[in-house]
Amino acid sequence: MVVFWLLFFDRAASDAPAVRVYNAPPHTPQVLIMLSYRHSYHAGNFADVLKHIVQIAIIEYLKKKDKPFTVHDTHGGAGSYAIANEHMQKTGEYVDGIGRLFGQRFGDPLLDRYLTLVAGLNPVGHLREYPGSPLISATLLREQDRLQCTELHSTDFPLLQQRFAGDKRVRVEKMDAWQGMRAMLPPTHRRGLVLIDPSYELEADYTDVLEGVREGLRRFATATYAVWYPVLDRQRTEGFVRRFVKAGFPDLLRVECCARADGSGRGMTGSGMLVINPPYTLAQQLSQTLPVLRQQLCDVGGHTLVKPLTAEH
């Protein structure tokens, strides 16, 4: 008999429920573990702002060509989130994320594109809904493009499914993220984005992500892979990034936005993205956008980073 020890872990300085699993086999299927993580507690926070800006930049680049592409989203969540939802109101994390930006324009094309998209979902001029990554993708896709999402949570999956009911461009499956990549990659199209953003509540997530990217590249080598990661402990974060560098990916970009100084003792102090096969324009775009984010979202001691990483062979 396998026994799982569950400890509650505060990822983002809130009392939102989350679990971290110890003494479980490293590749235990998530379906065997009762996960309590819900992204609705964290939707619209500063980490979402960074992730969704990077996502938009990549998709808009893909749209420059007429050829169709596919976005594969490994952790679809509920698709979108009502600001009035008790989870969002309980943590209030969105206040220091999208709440600081909504209704404004900053003269930065990428940031303003993101804000225009969010505003389009809130036509009355008040922030009532925040889009998750699936809804952002679906909003940006053309008729010929496709979106495929996986989500395992028993509450979020039907919400995600309902959100895109009737949209023939979107496929939603109740699957573990890594199972979904094996089952759904490669897609029909040769161009695309694979967005990978686990909660990292499972200890195995830190190693499974790299293996997932490797498996994905074996199946869908022409895609861009965007991996989100939290900054909780700087030493652990740097170890996570080093494993990607040592993996030898020839084209790897690191992007980071930390709202607070490292080691502030306040949960998640920042987040980042590792982008494999990034568009050649992405680093320059983000080098212009992230200083604006730093000014708007970061406390004293916070920082932003855009850095191409050299593969180690």
Automatic annotation (TrEMBL):
Highest taxon of source: Bacteria
Ligand binding (S-adenosyl-L-methionine): H52, H75, S133, E151, D176, A177, D197
Biological process annotations from GO: rRNA base methylation
Site (Interaction with substrate rRNA): residue numbering on this chain: Y37
GO molecular function annotations of the record: 23S rRNA (adenine(2030)-N(6))-methyltransferase activity; RNA binding
Keywords: Methyltransferase, RNA-binding, rRNA processing, S-adenosyl-L-methionine, Transferase
Catalytic activity: adenosine(2030) in 23S rRNA + S-adenosyl-L-methionine = N(6)-methyladenosine(2030) in 23S rRNA + S-adenosyl-L-homocysteine + H(+)
EC number of the protein: 2.1.1.266
Pfam family, one: RsmJ
Catalytic residue positions: D197
InterPro entries found in the cross-reference section: RlmJ (IPR007473), SAM-dependent_MTases_sf (IPR029063)
One Gene Ontology cellular component: cytosol
Protein family according to the UniProt entry: Belongs to the RlmJ family.
Subunit structure: Monomer.
Function: Specifically methylates the adenine in position 2030 of 23S rRNA.
Protein name: Ribosomal RNA large subunit methyltransferase J
Natural source organism: Alcanivorax hongdengensis A-11-3
Gene name of the record: rlmJ
